[in-house]
Amino acid sequence: MNSYAEYTTGEPVADAKAPGGPIHERWDTRRFEAKLVNPANRRKHTVIVVGTGLAGGSAGATLAEQGYHVVQFCYQDSPRRAHSIAAQGGINAAKNYRNDGDSVHRLFYDTVKGGDFRARESNVHRLAQISVEIIDQCVAQGVPFAREYGGLLDTRSFGGVQVSRTFYARGQTGQQLLLGAYQALSRQIAAGNVEMHPRTEMLDLIVVDGRARGIVARDLVTGKVDTYFADAVVLASGGYGNVFYLSTNAMNSNATAVWRAHRRGAWFGNPCFTQIHPTCIPRTGDHQSKLTLMSESLRNDGRIWVPKAKGDTRPPGEIPEGERDYYLERIYPSFGNLVPRDIASRAAKNVCDEGRGVGPGGQGVYLDFADAIARMGRKAVEAKYGNLFDMYQRITDEDPYEVPMRIYPAVHYTMGGLWVDYDLQTTVPGLFAIGEANFSDHGANRLGASALMQGLADGYFVLPATINDYLARNPHHEEVGAGHPVVREAVAQTEDRLARLLAVDGDRTPDSFHRELGELMWEFCGMARTDSGLRKALERIPQIREEFWRRVKVPGTGEELNQSLEKANRVVDYLELAELMCLDALHRAESCGGHFREESQTPDGEAARKDEEFSYAAAWEFTGTGTAPVLHKEDLVFEYVHPTQRSYA
Amino acid sequence: MKLTLRVWRQRHADAEGHMSTYEVDGISPDMSFLEMLDTLNEELILKGEEPVAFDHDCREGICGACSLVINGDAHGPERTTTCQLHMRSFADGDTIDVEPWRAAAFPVVKDLVVDRSAFDRIIQAGGYISVPTGSAPEAHATPVPKPDADSAFEHAECIGCGACVAACPNGSAMLFTSAKVNHLNVLPQGAPERETRVLDMVAQMDSEGFGGCTLTGECATACPKGIPLPSIAAMNKEWLRATRKVRR
Amino acid sequence: MGLFGPSVSGMALATRTDRRPSLPRAVWDSTVGKKTVMAVSGLIMLLYLVAHMIGNLKIFFGPDDFNHYAHWLRTLGGPVMRWEWTLWVIRVVLVAAVVAHAVSAYQLSRRDLKARPSKYVHKKPRASYATRTMRWGGIILGLFIVWHILDLTTGTAHPGGFQHLHPYQNVIDTFSTWYGNVVYLTAVVALGLHVRHGFWSAAQTLGVGSAARDRALKTCANGLALLLTAGFVSVPVGVMTGVVS
User: Fold this and answer.
1) ipTM greater than 0.90, yes or no?
2) Where are the beta strands (DSSP E) in A198-251?
3) Which residues form the 4Fe-4S ferredoxin-type domain (chain B) (predicted)?
4) What is the reported pTM?
């Protein structure tokens, strides 16, 4: 065993920003107590925003509307391509338009419970409150949500809840919401309030006198490494699911921004909390470069089953009803196919481990629409899910109207991220993290249709209110420029790292290392984790890292568009982050939400939490590559939702 | 499958480009076209050659990053994005030509990567509804008739990939521009800026150096999201209306 | 709602310019505007062609009818309009239409070619025949109009002795030469193709096109193209077959 696992426990960390008092008044209180920046002074403040997804796009637009000078970055060729665009299902909001008993408090309750009691109550309640305003904002922007014939908004119910509170735009809700934010951002770019840098990737954070003052970024076209300065830096760079190589994340989604910030002093919260989405298209072979999600909304009408007998290779149509096991409906009669994602994923893994999986390699279960088609008619099914069915058919060459879909879980979302307080500020003053980049409001498991809600809540409403307080309280920074010793060092380190990658000239591609790491993580830090497996991974990761720096081959130069260099540099950070994820998973010897430790389960195989030991958020402090980090615990206090063992039976 | 690829290679924007020939073997029909290129690139890296640069990201057909002209067709022979095109659409032994989008307004950055920032500037010219955060009325204050909402959605599906421009013999961006104009102009929320939006976006489109529309219909045929050709007529109508109605 | 809407009014929000060019300027400076000019001028010419074609058919009623018709055209609008006044008005409108159509087409074409400077290495035949032949067809028709006027209006390039106000004989003269027939028939075929795409295209440009109307418009365009072609072709065919002599 290497020394990395021998972490130390430091001072506990507390969220100092959330006010006390009744939970529904806390956000109002905080906004009132937060200092404001005089409108006339705002244009003198520069704020850097990294990322243009739902969180970054909405934050950049809103901060610019408020009068700040925003300098924004994305690695894509356009801010419109951020991966939020791929979210399919919908966005939750406690509008209660259906009069079905929904309320802010119920959304709050569902989210805390769905997160298996590992999220901060104050944050989650605020999220539920703001959800209502998000819908108003998006509709006003022209987001074409699905509507009823009366012209009012349609909603549907979504994984893990019993009310119909999910607003959607066919299977492309993320796209439509992102385009709304992108359009708002575009308007501010045109007005000169946002300086947009597409095809530019953040490679380091500049921290001067303990405050975030800028970033080091590389122009991906010219290869030039440059510095940008600001009064505050906002990271909206998304999650780190690509550590697993195969995930539903975009190919270029990466952890570099958050990891580099972590290395500069921002603590990392709950890195092991990973969401494995139950309804993805199974992989077809070693060539697989990424996995494609099928919206969870499919579980509203599709029925999940596997053959009752092991190794049953008959085509699905030839398996009689009596020989099918609709296992979710059997085990969880009241929620059936709509149980939360972590439960559905693990159940699929269990039946496949039993040898009852279907499709190539037995890594799949059926999602069957035969009943839905018989009940609603093919036309209605087509209207509801047509584009998803088309996508499935395109990828698999199978017609889901005739043959049941095959699905299998895949890494989809990371609940962990940079630790932030109620103001969304990290442990580095002046550095904020929003959206999936922070450790956020979802606890150990995120409910369906809540990622879009959180990204937009953070970007449109939370950050623009809380960042004022920071900027108002820190009005006169000394000027920081390219000549500052700290800046020069950060640039030199970045350039050195890139030069080293180019200089190795080994015999393995960056992708081959990424794939190797991903397979290791999927096996030992995936859907089910064990003490011994995680220790094995912790032993293996430094070896891969060492081999990487000895054998990686990156052709070309650093002074041009070089996609291999970009990739290699991202893998460098995955190779460090993966280690922290495994350590976090190892130290948390309980099961909760998406984190399932085989040692900690109920007699019937459900996740068993250990509240007396682990009712805290883990915030990890970086001490050096490969050296044991320091754990800081944030105790979670539940005043409104009493922790119970989740039950969806 | 064994394939011969002829791929456009161009070191940088100002360099001369040419088609280079590569052989790839062991291609599975289940691979996506981009996974086939990944395979080629892995081989090239190991040989010490520079891999082929191409834009790609979500690989689910929604981000609009991928942008290859395959055998003369934008996004290849199927009506989808390049990332959703699978090798089963080709036969063993095929020779496949891979080129970048070609249009004056989309200059080549490197190999198969082009600069599509002109599209961003068209949106910046008016492809939005001016509603600062926090100023929105209650969502149900303005009902939107379902046909209008559906029509808005149909146009809002555009992913900004640029296949329309790549396919158009005139390098015209009319289909892209019309998709956004129609998405916003059909909604009551978009009405206050209805005239300025279409006039400013069309003016920006023209100033970016896109060609004019001769209604060949190539754009709509190539569009992976099925933005229909009549969108262009609808935008023309909006434009004519706006030239008469806009306050000067 | 709007619980903490930004109180900064206007400051960072005005993004549009308020000054706009005049209507003609706005139209002429825009590709969409120039297409509108082409559509409107094209439709004016099309209207004229329909009338022209119907008038031509009078040739089948013999020289008296046809020559009388030509004479009547010059008295059109009388007594308000004097001899040939109306005809000159029509000619001026037509010349304006031809010039506007041609200049717009020329400018747009140059722009289109510039917008696609490098071609694909892998070439594929594209679009319908009519669409692709719009530019060449337009040039053919332009040249034809010049010849046609020199031949049958001014008589400058007329084979045999041109007789003013005796169009019947002039027409027979023209179609008695092989090149007269070849030039005319080529132009008429070009016209048919041009109208076929042009009419539908004009409808799109003027914003009349929609998914629901598309079939009707295409049928209409095809019908018009066919009608004009058949009508115009019938005259030289009549001369060649001796029906008109």
Assistant:
1) yes
2) 200-208, 211-219, 225-229, 232-235
3) 149-179
4) 0.95
